[in-house]
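Reminder to self: tokens first, then the designed residues, so the page reads top to bottom the way the pipeline ran.
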């Protein structure tokens, strides 16, 4: 049995990496907005950054679940094969 590198494990890991990059960008947005002098622009930047950070968290959890499910399926296939 050949296991494809384009399976759920691959895409789950790729999604986790993208979620981390998105979280890094959101954190930078919050940090930049917190140093601004104007209250209106800073507030919008902080809110936007926090929403992006929460979205990144949700995406990371979904991708972690993809990895868990792929791992469970692979384990089941190995058990069946053995």
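Designed residues (82 positions):
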């Amino acid at each position: 049995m050949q296991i494809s590198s384009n399976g759920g494990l691959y895409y789950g890991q790729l999604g986790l990496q993208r979620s981390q990059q998105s979280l890094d960008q959101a954190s930078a947005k919050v940090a930049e907005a917190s140093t601004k002098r104007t209250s209106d622009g800073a507030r919008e930047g902080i809110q936007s950054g926090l929403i992006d950070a929460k979205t990144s968290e949700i995406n990371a959890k979904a991708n972690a679940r993809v990895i868990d499910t792929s791992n469970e399926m692979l384990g089941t296939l190995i058990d069946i094969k053995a």
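The mean pLDDT is 86.
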